[in-house]
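I am still learning, so can you show me any protein sequence you like together with the matching structure tokens, please?
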Amino acid sequence: MTVQYEDALKGFREVGILPGDTVLLQSAMRPFGFVEGAGKTIGMALMEALGNDEGTLVAPAFCFIHEVQDHPVIDPATDKSEMGAISEAIRHFPGAFRSIAYRHSFSAVGKNAKWITDVDPAICVFDLRSAFGRMLALDTKVVLAGVTYVNSTSHHFGQYLAQVPDRHTIERQVTLKHPDGTLEERMMMDYQPQPTTTGDYYEFPYDFNKLGLWLEQAGKVQISTIGNAVIRCFRMRNLIDLVLTRYPVDQWIFFEDKQPVDLPFGKNATREYVDEAGREDIAIWAVVDPEQICDRSKR
């Protein structure tokens, strides 16, 4: 399956992306199939749907490797995004800005890119005064491209605002490398799971698809496809409103029930992997046909 620029542009427009929007894109490359131009094509097509300079595209540029470094040096100019080929391509777009953070930095391009990324790393990225708060103020649309709600970092924003007891903020002492090469010792805030009794990363497994399904059942999610990838789009405000409405009466909304939620549209494809911090995990991709995942070894 081959995906071209026009296919991507059509798919993004079908989920309601309009000129002037602000979009947070969370994505995986391989679910699409073979994309001519790779991640750059997907990012450029989304920018055109946004009206190019009229809109704003934000992509996570997270760096988990810093967690296992004894003396991490945060270098926004060269630290590679660990969030996939599309996010890494967007980081290199002309005019792209990048926020400074211990782990959860963002790349952004377009009208409000500088404002979203010009934040204090001593404040948690999920704080209303930081990147997520600014995206919320801009009525940002979240686009999940080839991934499910399991990959939605906006759900962690909801956890932060709900003050869930199984996560906490911690201070990290790091070295920040400035564009001119000078080094500065800094404190940066991070948001991590509380230590568990089992030694696992989470005490109980999360299932963010539960909240996603509720949004879909309420008619708050638009869905399309690009190639083999399922594309979902929802307003960040709708997710946060749902969290803050439901969490006070049900503190289990983020956690997995006896059976994980099976979303009604599309199928899941999975792949085991190890992240840059050495954690074993399973990637869950949202696709039309699990047999059509792009095999990079054949390209």
